[in-house]
């Protein structure tokens, strides 16, 4: 990347104090999607258990599953939005071809 320092600054502003390397973004998105998938599956299993047994799962387990699902979704959505923003900035910054 030509201007790595400025891209790190843009990402730093987007994530507060956390620096995110643009080159590492696809791997981080992949991990975030995997985490979201696992959290979704866990929540789905708890819901299926509720339907089959008619009994509520342990409140702590259910609460943890819901919080993990929400956090995983938020991280995934934020990273994907960041990726789209970077792509839009990169496209806008490209000089016109003649």
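^ structure tokens above, recovered residues below v
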């Amino acid at each position: 990347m030509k201007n790595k320092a400025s891209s790190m600054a843009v990402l730093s502003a987007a994530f507060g104090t956390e620096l995110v390397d643009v080159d590492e973004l696809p791997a981080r998105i992949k991990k975030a999607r995997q985490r979201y998938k696992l959290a979704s599956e866990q929540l789905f299993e708890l819901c299926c258990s509720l339907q089959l047994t008619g009994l509520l799962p342990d409140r702590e387990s259910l609460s943890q599953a819901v919080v993990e699902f929400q956090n995983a979704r938020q991280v995934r959505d934020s990273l994907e939005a960041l990726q789209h923003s970077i792509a839009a900035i990169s496209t806008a910054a490209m000089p016109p071809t003649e």
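The mean pLDDT is 83.
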